[in-house]
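Quick one, T. Sequence first:
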Amino acid sequence: SLAQSISKKVYLGMMPTSDIPAGRKRLLGKSSVARVLNGMLWMVFCALTGTGLLLAFRMPPGSGRHLAAAGLTRHEWGDWHTWFSYAFLVLMAVYLALHWRWFWQVAAKKRSWPLLLGFGAGVVLILLLALQPVSRVEKEREGKGRVERTVEWEERGGVGFRGR
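Structure tokens:
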């Protein structure tokens, strides 16, 4: 159809959007769901990046009880960072589900093996990182005339918990 032909040319950059006939622009616009989703993804990405940079450079490890930003300690900012990452994962899953046709037609060129290979590699990477063995580690830190011992993680039945 004419709308598909025009949208393909616009998508590929062969036709500027100003050359689209006025009656056809509405057919080519992104749906409001896609726009809201893209906006949410951008905002969550920015929040994730901002909290990550804050934690890495302004509140480095070891500053948990000594520094605060906007009234939150390093550990509280870490909690926000974690929740932003969960939100990003959910939004990305929705985004990928809404754009599955693009993956099939453009990214995989209508062949299933590249999609399955990419999807499988992603799942394997997630599982390798999420299911890392966790063991009990005792660290000794010396500083200002004291020795501090901490137990970081311990595994019981495959589920980790913080020990003190």
